[in-house]
């Protein structure tokens, strides 16, 4: 794999750390600003909204700029946002810093996916995308726990300063290692928007919203579920989240490897397995060992869908994939927000802390149905001349 993928993975590590580390530092941030924890929770919501809106906005603004230069600009935005968060005198300024950093998120992964795929042979594209996303998964194993520890030991502002330094490392790596790939001929906003007329692109994005939404329905409420139902101590939650991160790391590698060989079968297996495991989580949540194993499996099956779905969008948006790729990253965050809200609704309705697992199972099951529908439509529609075919025909 080219060294340029390492530079993209470092950027992804920084972005993944800043997205999730704030969840572990909410009590400290709320205490410093004298606000409630739900109010400080706006830092999570604001970031997610920034990703959803920033993905298409920043990609559109970058259509006239080379992809390498745009990646460097995005990392610069990321660094500025985290430095603003680190120095923020008020909660409002902190929120502004979070939103500024989030604007880089979707476009970085969207454009980065296209660049990663362009760096390798056609039969290794999903693997290259997975290599970049490895930075995001390792952030959950190393970056988030370490950032939380630093924040609790010497102050949360130090955590955001360290994350900004990671962004600088990613920026320098991109400047040095990523080649200046020429933009495809005729690449413009109109061409990029045309990709959204393809029903297969929209179906892939809907699978992204529902599939990864299924993961977040359960994981958002992992702390009360594990402490109140499984009987874990509060301190054990951090290590359970590390276990979830290990699952994500393994799932990402498997998804990248098999999506280059059998893309649609990989989606059927991961989405179907995810639906079953989430449904079983309502039972396994009552046992410490089984709950831990289930958390690992949810992370693995959930993230095994990411490289194939991202490659599916690139394949179907052939010729103008950048905007569609970035919007698909926004779709992950849209799914996260929707699923977290639905999970909260069933808990508020008095159905218990394991109820979000059923919500997640239904969402993943719906994503599987969309994958089957997508394959059925593809079988009935002849492949466009010059399009990137999926690695394996849909009837396998």
Helix segment tally: 16
Q: Can you tell me the CATH class of the largest domain?
A: Mainly Alpha
CATH arch. level architecture of the largest domain = Up-down Bundle
Shape call: globular
Mean pLDDT: 86
What is the terminal-to-terminal distance?
A: 28 Å
CATH superfamily of the largest domain: MFS general substrate transporter like domains
Q: Please give the share of residues in helix.
A: over 70%
Runs in which pLDDT lies below 50 for 5 or more consecutive residues are 383-396
Number of individual domains: 2
| Rg, alpha carbons | 20 Å
CATH topology assignment of the largest domain: Growth Hormone, Chain: A
**Largest sheet features:** none
| Count of beta strands | 0
H/E element order: HHHHHHHHHHHHHHHH
Explain briefly what this protein structure is.
The chain has 396 residues and is mostly helical.
Protein topology:
Blueprint: H1 4-33, H2 37-40, H3 42-61, H4 67-87, H5 91-118, H6 125-154, H7 156-177, H8 189-194, H9 199-219, H10 222-230, H11 236-259, H12 263-284, H13 288-303, H14 306-316, H15 322-348, H16 355-380
Helix pairs in contact: 1-3, 1-5, 1-6, 1-7, 3-5, 3-15, 4-5, 4-7, 5-6, 5-15, 6-7, 6-11, 6-14, 9-12, 9-13, 9-14, 9-15, 9-16, 11-13, 11-14, 12-13, 12-16, 15-16
């Amino acid at each position: 794999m080219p060294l340029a993928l390492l530079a993209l993975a470092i950027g992804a590590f920084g972005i993944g750390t800043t997205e999730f580390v704030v969840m572990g530092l909410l009590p400290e941030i709320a205490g410093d600003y004298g606000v409630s924890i739900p109010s400080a929770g706006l830092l999570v919501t604001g970031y997610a909204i920034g990703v959803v809106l920033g993905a298409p906005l920043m990609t559109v603004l970058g259509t006239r700029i080379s992809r390498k230069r745009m990646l460097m600009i995005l990392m610069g935005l990321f660094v500025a946002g985290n430095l603003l968060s680190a120095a923020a005198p008020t909660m409002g300024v902190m929120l502004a810093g979070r939103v500024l950093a989030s604007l880089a998120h979707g476009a970085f992964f969207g454009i980065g996916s296209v660049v990663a795929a362009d760096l390798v042979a056609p039969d290794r594209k999903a693997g290259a995308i997975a290599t970049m996303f490895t930075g995001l998964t390792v952030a959950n194993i190393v970056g988030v726990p370490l950032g939380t520890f630093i924040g609790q030991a010497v102050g949360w502002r130090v955590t955001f300063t360290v994350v900004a330094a990671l962004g600088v490392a990613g920026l320098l790596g991109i400047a040095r290692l990523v080649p200046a790939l020429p933009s495809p001929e005729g690449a413009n906003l109109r061409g990029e928007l045309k990709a959204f007329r393809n029903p297969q692109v929209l179906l892939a994005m809907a699978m992204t919203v529902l599939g990864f939404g299924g993961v977040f329905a359960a994981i958002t409420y992992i702390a009360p579920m594990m402490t109140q139902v499984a009987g874990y101590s509060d301190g054990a939650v951090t290590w359970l989240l590390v276990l979830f991160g290990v699952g994500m790391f393994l799932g990402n590698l498997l998804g990248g490897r098999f999506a280059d060989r059998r893309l649609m079968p990989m989606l059927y297996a991961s989405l179907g397995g995810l639906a079953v495991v989430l449904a079983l989580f309502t039972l396994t949540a009552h046992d410490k060992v089984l709950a831990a194993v289930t958390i690992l499996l949810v992370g693995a099956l959930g993230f095994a869908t990411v490289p194939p779905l991202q490659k599916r969008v690139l394949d179907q948006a052939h010729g103008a994939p950048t905007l569609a790729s970035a919007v698909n990253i926004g779709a992950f965050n849209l799914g996260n927000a929707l699923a977290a809200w639905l999970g909260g609704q069933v808990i508020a309705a008095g159905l218990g802390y394991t109820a979000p697992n059923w919500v997640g199972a239904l969402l993943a099951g719906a994503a599987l149905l969309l994958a089957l529908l997508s394959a059925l439509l593809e079988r009935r529609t002849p492949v466009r001349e010059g399009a990137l075919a999926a690695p394996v025909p849909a009837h396998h």
